[in-house]
Every structure is written in structure tokens, then in C-alpha cells.
Amino acid sequence: MKDYRDIIIKPVISERSMDLLNEDKYTFIVDKKANKSEIKTAIEKIFKVRVEKVRTINVKGKPKRMGRFEGKKPDRKKAIVTLKSGDKIRIFEGM
């Protein structure tokens, strides 16, 4: 099993993810090979909160161009984590 800090890559800061904070839902970019139970235990161990539900989304990378060179952004996996009522993650407070 991987280290918990290798599973959670970074939080997602967007307008939609900020709207989900009112419903105790937090969005993270996670390792592409991580499953829901690994994500749940990683969030609980790192942030000391209780996780109620985890939803995952595989996001395909968009095609990009720089002049005549073509490429694409890398694929990634997002996880929307619902916490039990009363629990908060401090890195999202004040945004």
C-alpha cells in the first residue's frame, strides 16, 4: 500500500468546488490508481476528519497547442469527498 501522502496530490480550488464547501464536500486531485477506500483512509489520516462518502471522476486531458506543436494535458483523477456533519478541513477555510 502507498503512503497516504502519495494518494492525495492537491486540493482543487475552483468556483464549483468552493460552492460544494457549503455541503461539506471537498475536491482533491488524487493518484490515478487509488481506489475509493484508499482515498477515504488517506483523507481521514491526514486531516483527522470522518469521511462519509467518496465520489471519483476520471478527467481526460484536453488537447493543447503551442505554435505548430501539438500535445495534450495529462489525464487526472478527481475525488469529491463528503464529510460527516460538523467536520471541516482547515486548508479550505477563509477562501
UniProtKB/TrEMBL annotation:
Record InterPro entries: Nucleotide-bd_a/b_plait_sf, Ribosomal_uL23-like, Ribosomal_uL23/eL15/eS24_sf, Ribosomal_uL23_CS
Highest rank taxon of the organism: Bacteria
PROSITE patterns registered for this protein in UniProt: RIBOSOMAL_L23
UniProt keyword Hydrolase present: no
BP terms from Gene Ontology: translation
Pfam families in UniProt: Ribosomal_L23
UniProt-recorded Gene Ontology molecular function terms: rRNA binding; structural constituent of ribosome
Keywords (A to Z) from UniProt: Ribonucleoprotein, Ribosomal protein, RNA-binding, rRNA-binding
CC terms in the record's Gene Ontology section: ribonucleoprotein complex; ribosome
Subunit structure: Part of the 50S ribosomal subunit. Contacts protein L29, and trigger factor when it is bound to the ribosome.
NCBIfam families: PRK05738.1-3, PRK05738.2-4, PRK05738.2-5, PRK05738.3-2
Entry's family note: Belongs to the universal ribosomal protein uL23 family.
Function recorded in the entry: One of the early assembly proteins it binds 23S rRNA. One of the proteins that surrounds the polypeptide exit tunnel on the outside of the ribosome. Forms the main docking site for trigger factor binding to the ribosome.
Protein name (record): Large ribosomal subunit protein uL23
